[in-house]
Specification:
Largest sheet: none
Order of helices and strands: HHHHHHHHH
Helix content: 55-70%
Number of strands: 0
Number of domains: 2
Radius of gyration: 24 Å
């Protein structure tokens, strides 16, 4: 294989696209076989082809993930709130905004608006991380940081990043009707 990293990337991408096209063809074949099945044997054959396509798609997805960031690590990570505790309480405003993508005052106002939402109340034996850390995780993630990077900085599993984002989105969506209003009929729009 070529030594130049950009050439290696192009070759990998070309192979990826080729495999993806083959997978699409395999999926289409499975659908056609299933639609044209005349008996149970034909239907079983179509299901085997569909299972092969799904299996190959999962392998390809895992290879892409491994190629980008390497294989997933252990989900058992040492818990540490130290970095985000310092970020939220002690770091400069510039550093805070570079991670959180909003000012400190706005962050705490948003925190106060969503912190009482039911989604942040633990239903299992394990307590959730505090809302301020879940909100910080969400804002970092939507601010274009990768889940892998956030998980390593916060010392949490990658899946916990997704859960925090899901909870915060749900809490924000819940307050949408209280914060976003359509203009009342008969009111004039502001000019400009």
């Amino acid at each position: 294989m070529a030594r130049n990293p950009s050439i290696r990337r192009k070759v990998f991408h070309k192979k990826y696209l080729e495999r993806k096209r083959h997978l699409q063809a395999l999926e289409q074949l499975a659908m056609l076989c299933l639609l044209g099945a005349e008996d149970d044997d034909d239907e079983d054959s179509a299901m085997v082809i569909a299972a092969m396509a799904l299996d190959e798609a999962a392998k390809l997805k895992e290879e892409m993930r491994s190629k980008n960031f390497g294989p997933r690590g252990s989900y058992n990570r040492e818990q540490s709130d130290e970095y985000f505790r310092r970020l939220l309480d002690r770091f400069s405003d510039r550093c805070f905004q570079s991670w959180i993508r909003m000012g400190r005052k706005s962050f705490w106002e948003l925190h106060d608006l969503i912190s009482d939402h039911e989604v942040f109340k633990s239903k299992g034996k394990k307590p959730q991380r505090p809302v301020k850390y879940q909100l910080a995780t969400f804002l970092c993630r939507v601010g274009a940081e990768t889940s892998v990077k956030i998980a390593s900085v916060m010392s949490i599993a990658e899946g916990s990043v997704y859960l925090s984002c899901k909870r915060v989105c749900r809490a924000i969506r819940h307050m949408r009707n209280d914060c976003v209003k359509w203009p009342a009929a008969g009111r004039e729009r502001p000019k400009g």
